[in-house]
Amino acid sequence: MTPDGTRRRAWRRAAVVAAGIAVLAAAFGAVHDVASRRNSAMAAAADAAGAAIRQARAADAALWAPNELQDAQRASREALTAQRIEAVRIWPIPAAGPVIATYRAAESAARAATGIAQERRTRASAAAASQIEAAHTLVSASEALASKLRVGKERRGLLAAARLAVEEARVYQRAGDYRNATVRALRAKELTAQVRDHAATAVARYADPDTVARWRRWKEETIAWSKREGRAAIVLFKEAHLLTLYVRGAPAGTYAIDLGFNWTADKLHEGDGATPEGRYRVVGRMGRTTSIYYKALLLDYPNADDRAEFARARRNGDVPAAARIGGLIEIHGGGGRSQDWTTGCVAVANGDMDDLFDRVGVGTPVTIVGSDDYGAIAEFATEQRTAAAGRRP
Amino acid sequence: MRFNVKLLAIILGLALTAAACGAPPKAELDAAKASLDAAVAAGAGEYAAPALTAVQDAQAALDAELKAQEGNWLKSYTKATQLAAAVKTAGEKAAADAAAGKETAKNEGTAAIADVKTLLTEAQGLLAKAPKGKGSAADIEAMKTDLATAATAITEAESALSSGKFLEAKAKAESAKTTANTVKTAVEAAMAAKKK
Fold first, then answer.
1. Which one of B116, B149, B177 would you mutate to disrupt binding with A, by most A Cβ within 10 Å of its Cβ?
2. Per residue in B51-109, pLDDT tens?
3. What confidence score (pLDDT) does residue B196 get?
4. Does A76 touch chain B (CB under 8 A)?
5. Which residues contact B107 (CB under 8 A, 6 or more apart)?
């Protein structure tokens, strides 16, 4: 071979090598470019899925949409695993499609979890707020009722516990624990229902048509007697806490009265705190020197009906074995306190007692009724009976 | 012969290197798992939820790396070792945050109970000196019952506190505080009205 031929071959060889290197470089660049774009796409999908999952967590999806959040997290983990598998493979170009699809599924599931969590949380918050408000209203109304009906220490304790339950519910509500807030509000309502059911049972007579009809008849007969005899007669209305003096059948004075601490009940035995219901007469008058309550008009309690009722109650075991029927029921002074404090007597303010003492003598009929109409107590008793029936399974 | 020995040495070296990189870092993985378990046991789920989530995310990244290396012909667990260390660190932080969170919740419950006990004593003292007049006896009895119920709630709060139910303890203490405050305010108002 001539020197020129050798040089030409050398140049051709060099050109081939250079071309080969160029092709390899171009191929490497192309592969790197594709791999880089795919890796970036996978990273972007991972970031989007991660951001959506963080948003779902911030929306408390772990509490309000746990299954949906777990689906999103599971898909994200699957995508991450697939992404790492692609990263460690010898083949430089990753199969990004399935990885990105799985990340997008995770992102979609996370967004769904966020939406579901927000909706459920809003509903739970509203439900808790509604239950707390209802419980608060019911407890407040029942506290007013308890004051009026004098429900007794045990029931008062239940109401106090109900009030505490409402306040506990508010603490849980502020902490975002709507489940416990609702549980406590429902407990408050349950305790209050116990008090109201008991109170309704105690005053059921006020809504009983036969009882109200009897009371009306007693009142009308007393007024008719006053008109017929031309004399004074007294009718006491326990629910209204009023005493009306009738003279010749016409109202001649109305006086506010304090009753026994268990006033809604009809007196059954000594110490029960109830003011009796029935038809009585004044059998004695005590002036300032003989009455410890300013002045007093003694009634003939117990009458025959009271004795019969006491005997029945003793037979049925409705009164303690050692209980006595009691007596010494009076209309006396020392009242005007706007509370029911006596052990069964009827108390009026001293000034009113002076007025009555002047106009009422021995033999004056005194009729004591619960009410002559269906008043607020009757309404409460009826409503509570309906509510209790609704709660029974 | 020398060529064969050299080649053999190179192949053996490569094999040893591959073997060294090819085994999962058991000690680091065990430490990572123990750290996660400790965080859960410390109550991180309740008192350090974000920190626990960070541990779980770190564990997920570690699991993904281990799974990826399983199918790899030329295994390398260098990244897995780093990720395991990250799980351990995150777990330790979550456990520490849980302990701090628990302590804070416990202190809040303790403070709420101490606060309401003081207020209850104050309210009881005031009620004993409440003006007794027209219509007051029944109200005073009712308030005594309310304070007695508040005292029961405080006892329940102390029981919840010692059982580690700190939010429950705080709820009962704060509800008792509202009741005691209501009674105190009512008696103070009655006393002020009487002075006029």
1. B149
2. 999 999 999 999 999 999 988 888 899 999 999 999 999 999 999 999 999 999 999 99
3. 66
4. yes
5. none
Whether residue B148 is found in the same domain as residue B122? yes
User: How many Å is the Cα radius of gyration of chain A?
Assistant: 44
Chain A positions in Cβ-Cβ contact with residue B63 (cut-off 8 Å): 77, 81
ipTM for the predicted complex = 0.79
Task: Name the fold adopted by A208-381.
Answer: L,D-transpeptidase catalytic domain-like (2.40.440)
Q: What is the pLDDT of residues A191-248, one digit of tens each?
A: 999 999 988 888 999 999 999 999 999 999 999 999 999 999 999 999 999 999 999 9
Question: Do residues A76 and A103 touch, judged by C-beta distance below 8 A?
Answer: yes
Which residue intervals of chain A bear CATH 2.40.440.10? 208-381
B38 and B56 inside one domain: yes
Cβ A237 vs Cβ A369: under 8 Å: yes
- Has residue B13 been placed in a domain? no
| Strand arrangement, sheet containing A242-247 | A250-256, A242-247, A232-237, A365-369, A278-286, A296-299, A330-332, A346-347
Burial class of residue B190, CB neighbours in 10 A (0-12, 13-18, 19+): middle
Count of C-beta atoms within a 10 Å radius of residue A268: 21
| Same-domain pairing of B136 and B170 | yes
Residue A37: count other Cβ atoms within 10 Å of its Cβ: 12
The string of pLDDT tens digits covering residues B139-174 is 788 889 999 999 999 999 999 999 999 989 999 999
Residues of A in contact with B179 (CB under 8 A): 160, 163-164, 167
Rounded Cα distance, A202 and A154, in Å: 14
From the candidates A80, A136, A149, A195, which should be mutated to test the interface with B, based on the most B CB atoms within 10 A? A80
Scan for tokens 């306040």, then name that residue. A167
Q: Does residue B42 belong to any structural domain of this protein?
A: yes
Are residue B35 and residue B64 in the same domain, yes or no? Answer: yes
Residue A7 Cα distances to A4, A12, A16, A17, angstroms: 5, 9, 14, 15
Distance of CA B70 to the CA centre of its chain: 36
Joined together, the tokens standing for residue A64 give 């309000």
Whether B48 and B81 map to the same domain: the answer is yes
Question: Maximum CA pair distance of chain A?
Answer: 167
- Tell me how far apart the alpha carbons of residues A112 and A61 are, in angstroms, rounded to a whole number: 10
The two tokens of residue B55 are: 């541990």
For residue B150, the chain A residues in CB contact (below 8 A) are 160, 164
Residues B129 and B44 in one domain: no
Range of the domain at B69: 23-101
| Contact yes or no for A156/B171 (Cβ under 8 A) | no
